[in-house]
Amino acid sequence: MIYPSYDVAVIGAGHAGCEAALACARLGLKTIVFTVSVDSIAMMPCNPNVGGTSKGHLVREIDALGGEMGKNIDRTFIQSKMLNTSKGPAVHSLRAQADKKNYSAEMRKILEKTDNLVIRQDEVSEIVVEKTEEGGSSVRRVTGVKTCSGNLYPCRSAILCTGVYLKARCITGEMSTYTGPNGLPAANHLTQSLIDLGIEVRRFKTGTPARIDGRTIDYSKMEEQKGDEKIVPFSFSNKRSDIERDQVSCWLTYTNSETHRIIRENIDRSPLFSGMIEGVGPRYCPSIEDKVMRFADKERHQVFIEPEGLYTNEMYISGMSSSLPEDVQYEMYRSVPGLENAVIVRNAYAIEYDCINATQLKASLEFKDIEGLFSAGQSNGSSGYEEAAAQGIIAGINSAMKLLGREPLILDRSDAYIGVLIDDLVTKETAEPYRMMTSRAEYRLLLRQDNADLRLYEYGHRVGLLSDDRYEAVINKKKIIESEIERLNSTTVGTTETIQHFLRAHDSTELTSGSTLAELVRRPELSYEAIADIDPGRPVVEEDVAEQINIEVKYEGYINRQRLQVDQFRKLEKKLIPADIDYDDVPSLRIEARQKLKKFCPVSIGQASRISGVSPADISVLLVFLGRK
Fold it and tell me: What is the pLDDT of residues 125-149, one digit of tens each?
């Protein structure tokens, strides 16, 4: 059967698929999203949280562009916490425990209420691509998708958001089942279609810990981890008062020498070490057997006990993902303080799946040699809900931009963590599931989570996802910040007894001459909030505005230095490489660099410089060649 045509077909309704489908539909395109089960829309098959170190940045950026993840976690969190507050603002990251069932249900409601969007429970088995001659060259273009039942859905663009479902295999000890997460059906047919299209496919692996009945846990042997009293929303459209609610606690315990002994004595039964698992796992999110074997000097490892939601007694045992057999899992978990009588509801397991080599994609997340075919999320070899959603919104936006005849949205490494994420995926040959980290961002002092709206509001509004009201609100916020910083720099206080008394009370050095308020804010022991007592002329501003003022003034020197680095970076990004360049014509270019440049086809000198195997000397040679041209 041939169904009516759609503008965009989104394959998968996980975190990438939801953002991609919503972006396309909200931009006015007739969109269909396929899922193996409508009950798995925005499902959280692994950890029950959104955000965390660097990941919180991604969620804030998705929101600033007009995405949904931040709003949805604000609606459904059961605990909220700002991480890394003892460090500088560049690495502060918001993290929220989600009610898994509610998170999925609320996102499904959003999709079902969105105009131009159709949800279809079916498995896509084939991407239909037609070859045409255009301008003397052959062009391949997406024209539709087929399902396992043989139905054809004509479309002008398709977005792969298959997550970990392609030929998925779940493994616990010697037991292997060909299913996706949580026992859902695997997608066993689409991989061959991708291979037939010449797409390079690889095999990755990830894992998840056991879920334990909370009634069988002795919390008295653990350290309680409460949420923040001062709740910070993920979405810039929300205020603290909009989302305040009662929170639940998480709990901290540790593995010990007995836990490690059990794992070592049974390591030969681990599929990871027996060779049963072929896929490459995430280095930065290792299983507990990985941790014990690789870090033999560690006497213990943290284990966080996290509620799966208000609807269940299940507790997620964060930090102890495993693929060991069930009997070993019981012995291992019960060796941990507080888990001596633990009853497992769901076994820990590893999951293997097919994904693509993301270096086949442009920075827009469109395949280089297939017009209209995009890919986002774990199907690109990344890990994590947040990384998936970030790619999903960009793939959705750029699919829409292509069909609307507009320029794609390309965020660079100095714009956003999303820019770092995508640039790393498409220019570096990732040999393992990619995880976002603050250390990957060269300009992280500028790319803070607190200023994501100020950085990205113009992009979100330009593409059409950020409303006029939100756009105007950010413009007004920016004006207030700039005006107040100017006032602080121009307002001087003297050596009056009032000022000196204030400084003594805050253990700050007394003044010997006049000082601006900005200079006082820069003192380590003071802040914009702290000097309110000696600054009666200040306007009343919102908390988030005060935070921006404080950071911009206190770290002004560092911020200005990083902005100069960004200027240098952007000069290289603006040096474009002609699409028709023949690298064989570039003299003195090393063979490895020639091969890599041909393979990746970088669009700029900046992008070329980040390709593994292309040295600074190669870049110099290329610059000389382009200069002569």
Answer: 999 999 988 777 889 999 999 999 8
Q: Please answer whether residues 19 and 62 qualify as being in contact, where contact means their C-beta atoms are separated by less than 8 angstroms.
A: yes
Cβ atoms of residues 281 and 349 within 8 Å: no
CA-CA-CA-CA torsion sign (40, 44, 50, 52): negative
Residue 472, CA atoms < 13 Å, CB-side half-sphere? 3
The tokens for 571 are 């000069």
Give me the count of residues in the chain. 629
Tokens of 490: 């121009």
Torsions phi, psi for 208 (to 5 deg):
-150, 150
pLDDT in tens, 266-325: 999 888 776 677 667 677 678 999 899 989 899 999 999 999 999 999 999 999 999 999
Q: Can you read off the two tokens belonging to residue 541?
A: 């501003």
Contact 320, 263 (CB under 8 A): no
Q: Which residues of 82-102 are buried (b: 16+ CB within 10 A; e: fewer)?
A: bbbeeeebbbbbbbbbbbbbb
Distance CA(271)–CA(177), nearest Å, equals 13
End-to-end CA distance of the chain: 54
3-state secondary structure of 388: helix
Q: Which long-range contacts does 357-360 make (Cβ < 8 Å, 24+ apart)?
A: 357/200, 357/201, 357/202, 357/381, 357/429, 358/382, 358/425, 358/426, 358/430, 359/425, 359/426, 359/427, 359/428, 359/429, 359/599, 359/600, 360/199, 360/200
Global model pTM greater than 0.85: yes
Handedness of CA 109, 111, 116, 118 (dihedral sign): negative
CA dihedral angle for residue 597, residue 570, residue 62, residue 446, rounded to 10 degrees = 130
Q: pLDDT tens digits, residue range 440-489?
A: 999 999 999 999 999 999 999 999 999 999 999 999 999 999 999 999 99
Q: Where are the beta strands (DSSP E) in 209-256?
A: 211-213, 223-225, 250-254
Query: Which own/partner contact pairs does 537-543 have at CB distance under 8 Å and 24+ positions apart?
Result: 537/487, 537/491, 538/484, 538/487, 539/480, 539/484, 541/480, 541/484, 542/477, 543/240
- Specify the pairing of strand 314-318 against strand 302-307: antiparallel
CB 46 within 8 A of CB 55: no
The DSSP call for residue 438 is G
pLDDT tens track for 509-567: 999 999 999 999 999 999 999 999 999 989 999 999 999 999 999 999 999 999 999 99
State the pLDDT at residue 133.
81
Distance CA 64, CA 233 (A): 13
The tokens for 133 are 């001659």
Helix (H) or strand (E) holding 205: strand 201-208
Question: What six digits make up the tokens of 279?
Answer: 């896929």
What is the Cα–Cα distance from 613 to 617, expressed in whole angstroms? Answer: 11
